[in-house]
From TrEMBL:
<dbReference type="InterPro" id="IPR018060">
    <property type="entry name" value="HTH_AraC"/>
</dbReference>
<dbReference type="InterPro" id="IPR050204">
    <property type="entry name" value="AraC_XylS_family_regulators"/>
</dbReference>
<protein>
    <submittedName>
        <fullName>AraC family transcriptional regulator</fullName>
    </submittedName>
</protein>
<dbReference type="Pfam" id="PF12833">
    <property type="entry name" value="HTH_18"/>
</dbReference>
<dbReference type="InterPro" id="IPR009594">
    <property type="entry name" value="Tscrpt_reg_HTH_AraC_N"/>
</dbReference>
<keyword id="KW-0804">Transcription</keyword>
<keyword id="KW-0238">DNA-binding</keyword>
<dbReference type="InterPro" id="IPR020449">
    <property type="entry name" value="Tscrpt_reg_AraC-type_HTH"/>
</dbReference>
<dbReference type="InterPro" id="IPR009057">
    <property type="entry name" value="Homeodomain-like_sf"/>
</dbReference>
<dbReference type="InterPro" id="IPR018062">
    <property type="entry name" value="HTH_AraC-typ_CS"/>
</dbReference>
<feature type="domain" description="HTH araC/xylS-type">
    <location>
        <begin position="207"/>
        <end position="305"/>
    </location>
</feature>
<dbReference type="Pfam" id="PF06719">
    <property type="entry name" value="AraC_N"/>
</dbReference>
<keyword id="KW-0805">Transcription regulation</keyword>
Amino acid sequence: MNHPLVPAPVALHRPADLLTLVENRTVYSLNAFELNIFETHQQAHKVALNMGSLVLTTMLRGKKVMHLPGRDAFEYLPGESVVVGEQQTMEIDFPEATEQNPTQCLAVAIPAETIRCTIDLLNERYPRTEEHTPWQLDAHDYAHLHNTPELTSTLERIIRVSQETTAAKDVLAGFTLQELLVRLMQTQARRLIFDNYQQHLTTHRFAHVVQYIKRNLAEPLTVEKLSELACMSKATFFRLFKREFGLTPVEYIIQERLSEAKRLLRHPLSTVADVCYRAGFNNPAYFQKLFRKHEGLTPGLYKKQCIVG
């Protein structure tokens, strides 16, 4: 089973079909965007690449080390995406690439006009909660992202529609690209508030909500209480939270409780039953089912792997 945060890898080229062992490029050109699949089969360093347009890249296999202007170098792994700005040159290291362990990465080159039109549409019809934080694509501060399941699912559709031969291919591609842009901006919004909520407590209502959730995971958390903290009606709070972040408040609470459960399970003296209640789950069977659905294994097996590791 493929990891829910990593798009299914595309079939690799046979060695005899490769034009180069370093960033061999397969291109799918559509009216809406250009999809590139890169694969590298040998170690290489400081390989420069500039695609002109703003590019969303996502790792499918292997490991790269990325060098972007104005940033420290960072490891780039499956389950992660990077936004590279328009006319920005990236330099890439491939420290572990071999014929048996190639890297594979997709890159979606997105026309600037498409980005502008999508952002204008969102800001006009579906504005974000706070007026001073309009929809935008951040190609610097929030350029390196951990994929969400929603973003991953949309990337897989981008790959599928690029390889179709139907007459409606370009129409479908246009709709899918718009969804991709929305998912990407929602993913960046999650990182802005979920990961850095303390910096926005005086400027963003959802930052207070996130802080309350994180501090009270073991307690009952109701939409009534959260909407009260956000100074909104229940219906408005639920709708705007989902619009801004791409998941419901309840889904976010589950996500945070599972993260806390994993942290607690790594402690050698913890028990699965104890972790269940300390993480805010009051039904052990439900906890087991939910943990397995999201992590692909039971809490007990996860704990054993942590101990062995």
